[in-house]
Amino acid sequence: MEQKNGFSSDRNTERAIRHLNDCIVFDNLIPEFFTAIGSTDQVGYFRAQHNSDLLTMSSTTPFPQEIKPHYMCAESIGVCGILPYINRYYYILDNKLFLWRTNGINNHEQIMEQEKVITAVCTFNPARDFFTKSVNSLLAVATPTYIKIYPIENDYISVNTFYTVKVNFMPTCLCAGQLNQLFIGGSDGHLYSFQFVVPVEGYLGSFDPNSQKPQEPYVLNNLTASWIKAAIMSFLSFAVSPITKVVYDSTTGFIATLDSTQKINIYNYSDGTLSLNYSFTPPKGIQFVALREVFNSDSCHTRFIAFTSTGDRYFFGTTDSFMGKSTKIALRAERKAPAEMKGNELIDAFYTLGYYAFICKNEIIGIQSINVDPSNSYEFVTILKINGFGLAVAGLSHDLAWMDTKMFHEPFVCQHFVDPPQMYILTSDGGSSIKFVFPCMVLRQLLLQNNYKFVTDVNDYMDRFVSNDESCAMCLLLASLFPEEARQFIFIASQFSTFQIAEKEISPDILSPIVHSFYIRASRLLNLVWNSAVFYRRQDNSIKVSPAFNAMSPEFVHKLYEIIQLGKLYLEESEINSKQYDDHRLEVSEYEREQLLALQESLEEIIEALKFIKILSKQKSALLSIGIEKLNANSVARLINECFGTTDSNVFLITALREYAVALFRNTPQSPELDFLAAEINDECPMFTKSSDAQILKALTDLESASRITGDEKKQILHDSANTFIKYSLKPFDIARVCAAFIALDGDKHAVQIAAARAHAIDDAERAYYWYRNGCDINDVSGSKTFDDVYKCYEAAFDAAYSDEGLHTVLNTNDELFALLVFQRMINTNEIDRLLKLDTPLVKEFLVENAPKLLWKYYIAHHKYREAVIELIKFASDAQADNPDDEISFDKRIEYLEIAHNYARQQGLTKLVDEIKTRLNCARIQKDISHDVIGEPLKDLKDLFSLAQEKSLWSYLLRIVSIMKLDEVNKRDLDINILWYNFLFNGDGVSTTSSSQEPITEEFINRTLKNVFSLIGTSTIVSKPEHMLAIFEDFRNFHKFRIDWVVDTLTALNIDGSQMFNAYSEILNKYDTLDDVPERRNQLVYAALWLIDHGYNGDIEEIRKYINSILSNKNSPYYDEIKQIVDRINN
């Protein structure tokens, strides 16, 4: 089975990581409270025993004194509210807006508009590429004819800096959208959007006043109707219902509106386009007083909650369909108000993280949804009296509202990693902040009341949350929140755990409640990043740290450290109390120690990784991208495509991060930014770059600096760095890049040594060497894999062999496999001359097995000429069937033989010279016969003769006989005559070499003979006249060529005329039957006389009797021709 990796190869943390994953999976399977809502009877309400168990309220911040005179003079009723994102309360009186801070500071701000009335106010966030960094928010103030936008800079509102947006409708409500965006509800019943779209110089409103049509830096759109329809609806205003509330869920893109008829419309907003998803008209008499969004983190399905004046809640959202996809948004549940609302009128409401704040006329009601045990879901309720008449309640979204996780669905879970929700209320007496209390605080209050004694009341309360060991997890959370009381909380958890495991079987894979609580606490912190990749690619392909890691609070790592320290504290206490343990408890204690130590080791590694990632999150994208570009594909996938907490990967997370750390500094130009980053990593992550890794990182950094240094200092750096890599050769550094760095710095020797060290460390038994030498058996999977691993090491230093230093270092390593692979590399890269000059038996051995065609060159390089000639003859003559790549053509064989001939002649190797000559002729004949069959071995004369005879190739037979020795001819005179006869009358000399369309003429035959004699020569046995003349004369006579054609043609081909005369004389005197054929006889006489007439030596007396006989009879054939020649000879 393939081994999958999680975090690190250095520690045995597999079981701890598995337990953490189990905890995360369990929490992710807790159904959200909204899915449990059915009838009120199924999900009940429970009143808190003490108000402080759920809700606390600060003192009241009164209205500014300056408001009272304006209130007395106001023409319309004032409107109050809260702007939580700028920490302000506000009061609208006619066209005046008063704002004062929620922190109790008395100074206030006042804005007065030109219109008679302000209809709505809202804050929204600016885009950083549009506004200066000091602008942290924007305040929108709406009137019937325009909306003014005021930038809030460093928490200060300048009433003289604004931008005016003119509108042709009356805004009735405002809502923040995305950055630079507002949604606006109109009195005409339409929904509008406002969006800044282009940067402007300086602050808003700085445009050329003289421009007739200045470009506006915003877009104002009617999202719910065309401009024509909008105009009609504005004219018929009595037919429309003004929008009274707009709510936008920035995490999903849904918008909900409430109009004056109590109708709720829910839209989907995407890319500037609005689409209606659902409309809801409540039963008659229902009055909605608040409409709130539910962020993606809080619920997978519920998107909005509407609150009625009686305290009822309407939940709008989606549900899971049968195929796993969400259905369309709709009303999904209704929930009646708690009994505490009886007789109260709800004025306003707010929701976040499972907590509700209902502000009524004289009270505020807090509600907490509990669903940690899905079989027992309920809501916790408390009531606080308020001073004055309730006016408004508001709060902030939490910082992680955008996260798509189920960790926020249950207060028992999310209390481990977020602060309790804080909200603001406004009453007729002023403003106050309210803060909800997490469930663990109830347990703490109970423990305080009982002086941290594990009494029945404590056990009973903790037993209510025994499911998934939530009680012990709360104790651990309290130990972190109140470190001075940590020992007491650990004691309580330990006591409760002991009762739970009594009589129960325990094992390494089963966690006791208290140990489980450590894993729960850690997993709930880590869940925020567990399923997120370390990096993500932006649209421009650059790299950034994933948002989940950027969102980690400064205390995040500290909280993980606290878990380690609390674990050590528990183990110390357990060791102290172990003397009182029975055998079962002792066994449990031993398992707990192993399980907690494994967790601590895992957390230490995870903490170092998170600290490193946090450092990276502060770096520029360009720098981060440089590191990624230098990593191998598996490490890149581990950091970009795979979750932080996955255990199904080909690369350990710690390994990938360390490789990335090294890559950041490798071949990157030195800069103050990079130096600061290196220092910060060394300071903040000492364990992340622990001893060996720190030394490797230092060695890499030193290599970078060595490129700017010369002389002895550079040599020392290379030497020291090389020793580091050799010492830690099995550590996961990129050997290819390390060796490349040394090579670039002229450290070829060091590159070779590092590669050899890594190869030896991987394969000290030399399995790769024996696998290679024994034929590379592909069925030996283990040997093949070992060879591949070792080869990668050697390959990293192959380029070092281009220098003499590097090549000799390879030979001095005594690593035979390394040397053999380098030799192969030298051949592949055309470094053959250098290879052949190496004076080592390994080269000859390598050439014999891998490149035999180069062996002769090796002998030449070492002045062993006889061996070189013999090798050339052997290579040129033998078949190469075992290796098709080495099969050679006849041209190549001939070339090798010619090279061998030259060396043999130069060195005076006479016997070899003669042998080579014969082989050369054979090779050329065989090439013509076989038409260059690649890979066919050379044949000897005997085999060639048989082959040509078998195929009736008469011209080739003539060539073969021409190079045979006399004793090899073995009385073949008659055979030679037959060869010439067949060549002229039947063989390839005429019928096979001439075109079927070309007639047999003297010119054609002359060309053919010229070709043949150029191959067989004029002084060989087959070119002797006595073997040719009779056949040639018959051929001439048969084709009726001119009488002197034979002698004229052969002498032109440099056949000796004197020998030809003697041959003619012999024929005339030998064959008496010629007298019976006077014409043929006279032709031969004429030919013989022609030779004498043309200056060739010959004893005319030998044929005198034939001349006299012819001249005695004028009627004899060719009388005149012969007489003319005789006369010329006599004269």
TrEMBL record:
It comes from the Eukaryota. GO terms for cellular component: nuclear pore inner ring. It is found in: Nucleus. One of its GO terms (molecular function) is structural constituent of nuclear pore. Keywords: Nucleus, Transport. The keyword Iron does not apply. GO terms for biological process: protein import into nucleus; protein localization to nuclear inner membrane; RNA export from nucleus; transcription-dependent tethering of RNA polymerase II gene DNA at nuclear periphery. Residues 514-1098 form the Nucleoporin Nup133/Nup155-like C-terminal domain. Residues 52-340 form the Nucleoporin Nup133/Nup155-like N-terminal domain. Belongs to the non-repetitive/WGA-negative nucleoporin family. This is Nucleoporin Nup133/Nup155-like N-terminal domain-containing protein. It comes from Tritrichomonas foetus.
